[in-house]
Input
Amino acid sequence: MSGLSKRRRGTSGRAQWMSEVEYRLGVAQSRQRASYESWLRKWIAAVLVLDVDEETTHPYVAIGLQLKKKGRAIPANDLWVAALCRQHSLPLLSRDRHFDLVSGLRRLDS
Output
């Protein structure tokens, strides 16, 4: 079963499971927690959440090796995000410029 079919939600966009985790962590630490929890529930209901599966491990390893050869690294969580983008041929919306180190990954800056 692919990551796309495991957690089908809405259809207004796609997000990685790691994005959901990072948002939840930020909301839990916020002074405006109640407001952000409401926003997060709506966001989760409106997107297709992509999960890691066996197929994700292939681009994860390829990207990890590519970065190692360059003598560069990105955080492990972001390596999973990049691997999911590559697996599903999706661009990445992020301000984190270290994603630019990943060849073939198109980063969209908000």
